[in-house]
Amino acid sequence: MADPLLDSLLAPGPAPTRAAPAWLDAARRQAREALVREGLPGARNEAWKYTSLRALAQRRYMPGDAQAATRNLERGLADLPGLGDARLVFANGVFRADLSRLPEAAGLVVEPLADALADADGLARASFERRFDDPAQVFARLNTALADDGFVLRVAPGARVAEPVHVVVLGAGAQALAWNLRLVVELGAGSALTLVEHHAGEADDAQLGNVVAEFALGAGARLDLLQLQVAAESATRIRRSAFTLAADAVLNLRTLELGGALARHDLVVGLDGDRARLTSRGVFVVRARQHSDTRLDVRHRARDTACDLVWRGVASGRARGVLHGAITVDPGADGTDASLDTKNLLLSAQAEIDVQPVLEIHADEVKAAHGATVGQLDERALFYLRTRGLPEAEARALLTLAFCRVAVDTLENVALREHVDALLLERLPVHGEPA
Amino acid sequence: MLKIENLHVRVAGKDILKGLSLSVGAGEVHAIMGPNGAGKSTLGNVLAGRDGYEVVDGSVTYDGIDLLALEPEQRAAAGVFLAFQYPVEIPGVNNTYFLRAALNAQRKARGEIELDSIQFLRKVREKLAVLHLKDELLHRAVNEGFSGGEKKRNEIFQMALLEPRLAILDETDSGLDIDALKMVADGVNAMRDPTRAFVVITHYQRLLDYIVPDFVHVLADGRIVQSGDKSLALKLEEEGYAWVAERRVAGAA
Predict the structure, then answer these.
(1) Is the pLDDT confidence value at B249 over 60?
(2) Which of B72, B92, B101 has its CB closest to that of A405?
């Protein structure tokens, strides 16, 4: 059955600048056929239960942005305090060399996706030939079918890159465009990298941005990743962040989902090697009619692996926040230590938060814990602060900020931490937003 | 300074205070003693402005104004302080940040100049020394991970810093060992002053060995059944609260 939304998403975009190799054509065709065959997931698909694509179904997107490479952008969109001026900027899915400065560090190589795709046995090929067999992974399929920009970033074994790499993914323009971007990152054994993945856009951004980011951490590698999503409240962002960790690799992840009319983020982490370790600190803050759906999918596939997930959510106005936190411990992943802690604040009667912790354990000697709560601000704490003289609005702001700071309070970059605090504070509905 | 007249308070549909009257003048220390369930903590909470405490009858005036009409933060700015029986842990809110925000909010409400961080820290160091509190507590979240004694000393430290004119101490002595009790008492005594008044709510006489009150009142079944000087506290210590029950029956007859 024809689906006008899907048809508009699959329509051919601006012609690629060079002919695609046969393997890529085959991979794209395969993804496209799967999409056409199975269509967009409906409400009965468990992974899309809380996020209806019906809201998007009224829209028809233009494929790609022919002006993306030259479009004038509001100034300052890509700026973040505390970071150097080395940055990789993408606007509407297209690399902007004019706004970027490639980071220079020993052992760090960044290659445009188009170049990487010409390489018959590189990382890009592996990324595009990955099959997404689950019909729920509709946007990953779409990305494989269409993404022709992005990068492959590699850190050589043993290289420790001191300067954070700042990747900026911008949406621009009120015209409804759909664009795709593919980012592939590989950390060699024993290497270390700090990356800031920054999703932003112009105030009237109405784009559907579909970003697939894949990270492979070699043995003993360490990745510190801050994901800051502050897209405009008219934007749609669909992201898949997938990580594989070899033995002794460490992923330290901080994720803030603050923007977008509709933001969907699948965070998929495979702890594939013994003693691989994931720390995830995250927060979503939604207000007005924002909708944010984050799905954590952590798989323990090896012995003595650990994950520690702490997430906070705040919803006000008529907003809806969803957090699905799944931890699966595969047979043989003995000695796993897994914990998920999620607490959520509902600040208005019309807001909604749905939390689903899912623990599946198929191994022995596993330590696993999860806790999930949805509630209001602690009235006792509020009263306590007020008896010391803080006006009610200020006391509420302080408590709400404290609640979400779990995602940032261990950030060592002070300027960045203060900036993120300010971003959180300005999104908290303490100054008279109707309940 | 504080005048409570015929105060009737209902909590969750239950009458707790049933005609309490009390008058506290500047420079005075009043001890309120009584058995569990007499309404001692209700008195503290109602004076500080907690929600859920319904004033059915009576009045409370503070410096001639209707205290009950003020929001909790307005009471604080007017100089009323409640040291909590159970101080609340507030993860994520830094103690120093909170204290400075509180002090400056009060100063702002009173039309005074706000303190910068250097002036504030100077004041903090001064007060910390009196209570033998470790600097490290300042960098932690409010009351988070504090021991019982540290929480109570932190209450008194906040009082010292905020310099209220009327301080209500709600069972600040409960759960304290003798050293902590002395520190709390030192903190209070250092602040005794002809312009400042204290209402010390306690179950035991012990604290009053160190904070010597000018007046002692016995609160039972929602009203003050007897008042006297500090010797009344000693009598209570010797005879317990059993005789209070008799008095109550006699009063009702």
Answers:
(1) no
(2) B92
